[in-house]
Each structure stands twice: as structure tokens, then as C-alpha cells.
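U., I forgot to send this yesterday:
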Amino acid sequence: MRLLWLLLTVVALASAGVLQDSTMKRYDNFKVYKLNIQNKIQLAAIEKLGELTKKYNVWRDYDRNTKQVDIMVNPEEMPYFQQLLKLNNITSEVMVENVQALIDEEQVTATADSTTFGWTKYYELEEIQAWLDEVLANYPTVTEEFIVGQSYEGRTIRGIKISHKTGNPGIFIESNIHAREWITSASATWFINELLTSEEPDVRNLADSYDWYIIPVFNVDGFEYSHRKDRMWRKTRQPHATNDCVGADANRNFDSHWLESNGASSNPCSETFAGDQPGSEPEAKALTEFLTANQDKFDAYFSFHSYGQYLLSPYGHTATEFPDNYDDILAMGKAFADAIEALPYGTAYRYGSTAFVLYVATGTSVDWVFNELDKKIGFTIEYRDTGRYGFILPPVQIIPNCEELLVGMLALIEQAKALGYL
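Result:
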């Protein structure tokens, strides 16, 4: 009888979501360090560590302005890591004492948002897809599903179009191309909801004046894996033909200065592996084909990411060259950042070209759209925060982050319109 009671208890807890999947990778006592990099030798040493992905994991690549790198360290490697820092005279600061503790805190009780889809917790892919179905059913006259294509594991990459009248300029949003950046799909779904339900005049005007094409979860395989197996998973899930490492960085897999200027890695084990060739990832190939076929339907492109609080624009391949309309891009960036900082949260965003403000990144979706489809508005938004929580942003910050997104988008698009782009 006692054994039966125990079994029933375990089943009940599992059903309530209290027990975590025992196969989920754990990060007990993994630490995240912010490193201050002062020369090329120091940077080379840390970049080499970043290739050892089972022992180290770069959370934020080298920021050429702050001269900092954020890296997660396996506790078993701690003595070697500390020795390497000392030998190379690299100063450091611990940003996260225990990654697993943050992951545990991120999980909320099963009762949160239990009756309706809300934004006080992070949702899994199946839940987001079900919510999307509800939205399409509830707003049939202004919403329409679009299918980008299929992932490597056969999942459908879904998007939603919101259109209140014909002839609107189009704005395209791609979210969660990096699996572990959960705040991005949370922000995308919240933004969809605002466009459909908000009664604020500015938001209604935003919704009514543009056709919105939004993909809440682009990297569907990786996102599912980040919920089921490894919270810190970033890449796609396609196995490599000659290597045990799985997946590529889909945001380095587009055919725009692909694998140039040290803006990505040719190592299949790297977090920024660009794939064996442009479009080698089914997801990136599908998006390229979809955007090409529908390029006359949108005028602006946004890619949602985390973390760091940046608004990044082309180019990603060079820090010494800039687009012809860079002054206008900076004006849009300033409007975005000023509007967000004016909120009570006081959150500060930096803005400018990817390679100049942050680091060289090649083969990105935004640069591909900007360069190959000749769109003049393309931005990567890197959401909260600056390293205290990194990718594991607490659910309590979802709505504040979304509020910042909304006021930023309102200001940016108004500026773009004033400059004659929309």
C-alpha cells in the first residue's frame, strides 16, 4: 500500500510539473565570469577555451568597446581556468555563482498561468503553438498563418501575419533563432497579443498601419531541446557528417559574407559554427527561400535575441564600413534607445552597427536581408540584461522587457516613417 501511495505521488508531481526531467543536463556550480580582455594574446587564449564546449561556454563574445567576454566554466575546469587567467594576466568578475540555481529559480509553480496563456512564465514549444492556434481562431479576419518550412527534425516553422487593411507596408520579425534565448519568444508572443488587443491609440495605430509577419519560435528543434534536455542549448539540431558535435549557429548560416572576417567558426563544436556551407541548415535555407519569395511584402526586418541590451544594425562583417543610410539608421537607433531609457526602469541600450558596437558576426539573417534583399531597415535586438542573469532572465522580467520593446518599436518606426522609409 505504501509503495502504491509513493508511486501515485510521483505520478502526481510529474503531472504537475514539479519534478524535472531526470535526463535534463544539469549545471550545478557552473559559474559565469566576465573577463576583461586587454590584448590579442588574452583574447586568443579565451577564444581557444570557447571551442571546448563541454568545459566552457561563451555566453557573450568579445565586445570590442567594453573589451569584455562572458564565459561559463565547468567546475571541474576551475583550477585550470584560474591558472590560465593568472598566467595571461586576465582580470575577472563572477557574474553567476551557480548556473543551475538560476535555472531552478526560473521554473515556476504549475499554477502560474494555468488557466490562460500569460507572461509570468516561459512556455514550451507545444504551448506556444497551441496559443498561436487560439489566436488564429479568435481573430480570423485580421490574422493568417504562414509556414516558413520544416526543421531538420521535421517540425513546422510557423508564423502569423496580422493585417487590418490592404496596402500596408510590411514588418517582419524572426524570434528565437538561438534556442536558449527564451525571452525572445516570450516577447514575440506578448507583442502579437498587444497588436491584437491593446486599446492604446499609439499601439492601435501601429497595428493598423502595418502588415506584421512574426515567427515566435524559429529554431524549433533547438528550442524544444533547450526545454527537454539542455537549458543552455543554442544551435540547431542537425548532426554533422564527420563530427560528433550537433547543430550549427543558424544566425551564421546565411549567405551574406558567410564565414568571413572571423565572424563565425568553421569548427562544428563551436557555438558560432557557420555550417559547412551557406544554407546547410534546413531552417536557414527555408527562411531564405520564404523571404526571397515574399520580399515585396515587407520593408523592415527585426531579429529578436538576448542578451546585452543592444540594438544592432548592419554591417556585421566589418567595423570600418557602414551602409549608405547609416545616419538614418543611427537616428532610428537613438529613438529606440531614448524611448526605452525614459521608462521608469531606466534600461540603457547601445545602438549602432553590429561589428562596430559589439563584434564581427557574419552570415546573419539581418545582414542577409539588408544586403541581398536590399531592405534599408534591419535590426537585431539584444534584450535584457547585461550579465547578471544572462540567458536565464527571471520570468518576473518578461513583462518589463516587453514594455521596453513596445515603446522602442513605437519610437523607431515613427522615426523611420518621418525619414521616409515606411
